[in-house]
Specification:
Layout (H helix, E strand, L loop, with lengths): L4 E5 L4 H12 L3 E6 L8 E4 L6 H16 L4 E6 L13 H26 E10 L12 H17 L11 E7 L2 E2 L1 H6 L9 E2 H12 L10 E7 L2 E6 L2
Parallel strand pairs: 1-2, 1-4, 2-3, 4-5, 5-6, 6-9, 7-8
Antiparallel strand pairs: 9-10
Helix pairs in contact: 1-6, 2-3, 3-4
Length: about 240
């Protein structure tokens, strides 16, 4: 007997893979959505990379629906995204477009998925970024995209957003996640201030099980110091 059903958007990335592993270990049916397959998931939707935003949404919502065969999801968790630097002087449109595709397209498709397939009281979790609460002159496209995810979170938490009744919508706002890639590129950093992927997956697990839930619409900063992570809601 499965504990429930969750879908991880970005299920092949570092954090997404950790989430797939966590929920599988806790006896959930797990769907992965990404540009490539996650073989550990029970169902894996491969997003058509070059398709339009609208066509990606149609493909994802339809394929997840087919996999569920009438069942509802306990959680839709979007941890897709990426990072690009750059200011207004060079490649602004190029970098902003890439960030928009990686963070905003995936978040809005996750919202459409939740509107169709999430159960009442289910969880929709998105991924924003703490730096995007302020100006990000050295990474303008990234800041724009993450700020849009924050706005989407607040909108989805309001009445008449199209989500099922009593759904919990939150965004996590990490500073730095402890991934192999980040360690490679920032080898001299203080790793005790980076948030472990397993801790993030456990948070999603608690909220999926209706434990220690924050208020819907919350933007939750993940602040890690000396290996201990605190959740600080943005006022």
């Amino acid at each position: 007997m499965s504990a429930g059903r969750v879908v991880i958007y970005g299920g092949k990335g570092a954090l997404g893979s950790a989430c797939v592993d966590y929920f599988k270990a806790n006896n959930y049916w797990v769907g992965s959505i990404d540009l490539s397959e996650n073989e550990k998931a029970d169902a894996s939707v491969v997003v058509p990379r070059d398709a339009s935003w609208e066509d990606q949404e149609t493909a994802v919502v339809c394929q997840v629906g087919e996999s569920l065969a009438g069942q509802k999801l306990d959680a839709v968790i979007c941890v897709a995204g990426g990072w690009a630097g750059g200011n207004a002087k060079k490649d602004l449109a190029k970098n902003a477009d890439l960030m928009w595709r990686q963070s905003v397209w995936s978040s809005s498709i996750s919202a459409a998925l939740a509107a169709q397939h999430l159960k009442a009281g289910g969880l929709l979790a998105l991924t924003g970024a703490k730096p995007a609460l302020e100006g990000t002159p050295g990474m303008i496209g990234y800041g724009m995209a993450k700020a849009a995810v924050h706005q989407l979170t607040r909108s989805l938490a309001g009445e008449n957003s199209g989500l099922p009744s009593d759904a919990l919508v939150v965004s996590i706002l990490p500073v730095t996640l402890d991934t192999a890639m980040n360690r490679k590129w920032m080898p001299k950093s203080d790793f005790s201030s980076w948030t472990p992927l397993t801790e993030v997956a456990q948070l999603f697990g608690k909220w999926t099980q209706d434990q220690e839930r924050p208020k819907t619409g919350s933007l939750l900063q993940l602040i890690t110091k000396n290996g201990i992570t605190e959740l600080i809601a943005v006022e």
